[in-house]
Amino acid sequence: VLFVLSMQGGKILASGSDTAADGIIKLSGGVNAVDGFSGYKQLSEEAVITARPDVILMMNNAGPAASDDELFANPSILSTPAGAARKVVRMDGGYLLGFGPRTADVIHDLAASLYGGQSAD
Questions:
Q1: Exposure check for the chain: N or C terminus, fewer CB within 10 A?
Q2: Cα–Cα distance measured from residue 49 to residue 61, given in angstroms and rounded to the nearest whole number
Q3: How many CB atoms sit inside 10 A of residue 105's CB?
Q4: Where do the domains of the chain lie?
Q5: For residue 18, is it left (φ>0), alpha (ψ between -120 and 50) or beta?
Q6: What are the residues facing 91 on neighbouring strands?
Q7: Is the pTM of this model over 0.85?
Q8: Which fold has domain 2-114?
Q9: Rounded to 5 degrees, what are φ and ψ at 66?
Q10: Distance of CA 56 to the CA centre of its chain
């Protein structure tokens, strides 16, 4: 799973380890595609391709978010399994990144999106 925080100017800002997004991905049974760094970093095209995410995870309320067409027009995204399958999951940013009373719900919802309703054992 590649969590894309933003795509300004075609540059992908993604979540590494030690972030709320990384925690939610892992608790949902997913694997962060780019956990070789801590925090959020802008990724090179090569890094996106090398990460080979099956799913792109984005917030659906982060200002001027990239549309699916804009996301999949990015050559590096298009070169990944997620790009080939056009697999993107969008969730509310406060829901996704706000650890709190709704954390169990977001974990359940993301796991269902990743695994089609199957348990993420």
A1: C
A2: 26
A3: 10
A4: 2-114
A5: left
A6: 59
A7: yes
A8: Rossmann fold (3.40.50)
A9: -70, 140
A10: 4
CA distance 99 to 102: 7
Asked if 52 contacts 81 with a C-beta cutoff of 8 angstroms, the reply is yes
pLDDT digits (tens, 9 = 90+) for 43-82: 999 999 999 999 999 998 755 568 888 899 999 999 999 9
Q: DSSP per residue over the chain, as a string?
A: -EEEEE-GGGPEEEE-BSSHHHHHHHHTT---TT-SSBSEEEEPHHHHHHH--S-EEEESSSSSPPPHHHHHHSHHHHTSHHHHHT-EEEE-HHHHH--STTHHHHHHHHHHHHHTTS---
Contact 20, 99 (CB under 8 A): yes
